[in-house]
Amino acid sequence: MTEVTLTDEATDYLQEVINTLTDEDYHSLIRMVDDRGGEISLKDVKSMMDVLENPDEM
Does pTM surpass 0.90? Predict the structure, then answer.
């Protein structure tokens, strides 16, 4: 497993939206965060959420 660090802003945002995700989206988000590794910013998290919300655009 890759070490991941979330910025404070990313953590705050995730705390707000995490309960709105389906189980499938939650697990997909966890995989994206793990694959990305390193420091995850709010911008990174919002990009990941865009992928979850608009999978056909990727």
Answer: no
DSSP-assigned beta bridge partners for residue 4: 38
Amino acid at 34: D
- Rounded to an integer, what is the distance from CA 47 to the centroid of its chain? 8
Among 1, 2, 4, residue whose Cα is nearest residue 40: 4
Residue with tokens 């911008």: 43
pLDDT tens track of the chain, all 58 residues? Answer: 678 899 999 999 999 999 999 999 999 999 999 999 899 999 999 999 999 999 886 5
Q: Which two tokens stand for residue 41?
A: 């910013």
Q: Identify the DSSP state of 4.
A: E
Tokens of 46: 């919002």
